[in-house]
Amino acid sequence: MFRKASYILVFVALPLLLCSCMENRVNRGNDALRIGDYARAVSNFSAVLDDNPLDRDARYGLALSYYAIAEEKERIKSGTEPLWERTVQEFQVLWNVDSSFKIREAYSNSLFYLAKATLSENSRANVLPLLERSIALDSLNYFSFNLKALILESLDRTEEAKDLYVYIITKEPKFLSAYINLGNVYWREGDVPSAWDIWSMGLKQDDKNAVLLHWTRVAEDSLKALIDTGRL
Fold first, then answer.
1. Taking a C-beta distance cutoff of 8 angstroms, is the pair 153, 172 a contact?
2. Cα dihedral 114, 30, 38, 43 in deg (nearest 10)
3. How far is CA 26 from the centre of its chain?
4. Which DSSP state fits 79?
5. How far is the C-alpha of 196 from the C-alpha of 133, rounded, in Å?
6. 158: Cβ contacts below 8 Å, ≥ 6 apart
7. Containing structural domain, residue 197
8. Which of 110, 139, 168 is where one domain is finished?
9. Where are the alpha helices (DSSP H) in 36-157?
């Protein structure tokens, strides 16, 4: 009887031991991620997922690890497309496990960076579906809105691009790239007053921005020339 009871104790303790071991691996992975030891973070999270592919915390940790690796590569502008592809893949799997709000921003950002990296490799690549997904996940991701507008411009869908730039400026007045890009559209169309208006609006948000300073002055000179020649 004593021997049988001891077997039961061993069988009950084993799952608890495995659970504790996996929890420790997740904690070690989080510690490694926090200090930038990404290879070790990936190793620990992957080990947990080998035993339990549905472990939400390990899935989240692994996705964040690849995000951090890709972001680090992004800073040196070196071959980031495969890393962002892997990051997006991890977030896609994580989404199937946990579609809570907390993962949306990072998932959305990874899609934006994948679209950007893809375009750097092939400027004709169709990345609009990536950006649409990014925006659907996070409606405050104005980087994705802005890149989408630039792509629409390249497709001669200029009015749609303008609407997006105006939308960004309305929702996030400090997003300077939208002022620059919208002003550029008007400038290319020969609408100098509108270009000047938009660039000037941007300068009110940041009066030290070099790009806006330059183009506002160029537009001012053009406006003076138009007035002097009676064309305005």
1. no
2. -100
3. 25
4. S
5. 34
6. 152, 185, 189
7. 142-232
8. 139
9. 38-51, 56-75, 81-97, 104-121, 128-137, 142-154
Q: Residue 103 gets which letter from DSSP?
A: G
* Average confidence score pLDDT of the chain: 88
pLDDT tens digits for range 67-79 = 998 888 777 666 6
Please give the backbone phi and psi of residue 122, each rounded to the nearest 5 degrees, phi first.
-150, 100
Give 79's Cβ-side CA count (13 Å radius).
Answer: 1
The pLDDT tens digits for 56-66 are 999 999 999 99
Between CA 61 and CA 138 the distance in angstroms is 20
Q: Are residues 112 and 221 in the same domain?
A: no
Output the domain CATH number for residue 103: 1.25.40.10
Q: The tokens 């679209």 sit on which residue? A: 115
Query: Whole-angstrom Cα distance, residue 69 to residue 79?
Result: 12
Report pLDDT for 9. 40
Segment 207-218, tens digit of pLDDT: 999 999 999 999
CA distance 213 to 202: 9
User: Are 25 and 118 contained in the same domain?
Assistant: yes
**Count of the separate structural domains present in the chain:** 2
d(CA 101, CA 87): 18
**Beta-carbon contacts of residue 196 (< 8 Å; ≥ 6 apart):** 183, 216, 219, 220, 222, 223
